[in-house]
């Protein structure tokens, strides 16, 4: 019969072999191998931060639906600092008031082609819109109450355009079509100074055009108060005002890359983010810097449905320092979203169904418009009526959702899914992981689940051992016996948490089989 002391003597060496190590949640690097990946293998529905991830909110619809599939949305400010929001579908243009879309199309509506979208810009007190098929449109800021959109250009030359923006005191069109020269996809055409209705080339008014000799189609015009930036398929140029007789000069600053995806181009301050044929880049005004190389570029191109480039959209979330791209997946109509934190230079992906990403400012409410929020003045409002919330002007990272409603990313937290790098806890042999402690804080993170996976060889497919929820000690316990291990932390929809930093694993050797 074995004595108690003999049994303890056998157990104690095994207990001493148990060790712990922290597996941090580094940056998402799906383009690198799973084993000893310095980041994480999956980062879904979470905001990338310096030392881990924060929760990502879902969409909360704000408006009624457009009559058709949303193609774009845009917000603008008038001289009194009032906010106005506009949107377009294939056959109509809309203005929003008190969270309700109103059709403000010109008589007869529009005929946007299947591969085109609406682009908006503000020129002085006017909102200008183009879809290439129809004449360039305009409406006075907040003018829906007094009149609908109408044709903008009144000069003899009335070019249509795929792209537009305001550069200094000029409205600039790109990739144009006119009755004299037809479709000239490599042309940039600017208006008379301070007059967006006049596109007749004239030295006095300073209107003119430039046909770019190389670089392919004009894919985007990015405006600015100092200079404009012209994106073509294979070139990026600065458009700089030099005055008479040339008016504008074009200086190619990147002859190696442009973009095949016009709607991937999004500016923020002096930075312009875009997708080139090589992957994701940031243009700083003088050079392009890769931001997706050895991180997400290859994974993106393997997922992206290149036959639906017009469905790509991009927007900026200035509060969280994020630039986001929504793009269609091959073989499905559902969009995937990639987000990039430009301060920490880290990525994540969001699984959510939407039509278009947009960035808008909240509108102020009229007294009658408060009925949209609630008809109960005693219990229906969480904000004081003296609050600035009712004045509008707050920047919102938003989208036109799957139902073609304007929606803000202010809903319940999405279910996050973060998969650690693949580790070999004990060099050159198998190990048994018996406990994983998620390093996640928050008032309601106890519902999080950890999935255990392992494999014996790099040639094997990962095998799921099972899943466990966090217990009273903050651990999850399950026996995972393998050479290579990886773990998935999954939170629940609506779960309240603030930061996920990594996992603390407890393990011991399992032999050299």
Short description:
The chain is mostly beta strands and 513 residues long. It has 2 helices and 39 strands. The strands form 10 sheets. A 5-stranded antiparallel sheet has the order 2-33-38-35-36, with no helix packed on it. Strands 1-39-34-37 form a 4-stranded antiparallel sheet, covered by helices on one side. It has a 4-stranded antiparallel sheet with strand order 5-32-31-30, with no helix packed on it.
Identify the CATH class of the largest domain.
Answer: Mainly Beta
* Unreliable sequence segments: 379-385
What is the alpha-carbon Rg in Å?
Answer: 28 Å
How many strands appear in the DSSP assignment? 39
Q: Sum up the overall morphology in one term.
A: elongated
Label the structural class. Answer: mainly beta
> Which superfamily, in CATH terms, is the homologous superfamily of the largest domain?
YVTN repeat-like/Quinoprotein amine dehydrogenase
The CATH architecture of the largest domain can be given as 7 Propeller
Helix content: under 10%
Strand order of the largest sheet: 2-33-38-35-36
Major sheet summary line: 5 strands, antiparallel
Strand content: over 45%
Q: Indicate the CATH topology of the largest domain.
A: Methylamine Dehydrogenase, Chain H
So how many helices? Answer: 2
The overall average pLDDT, rounded, is: 90
Tally of domains: 2
Spatial gap, N to C terminus? 31 Å
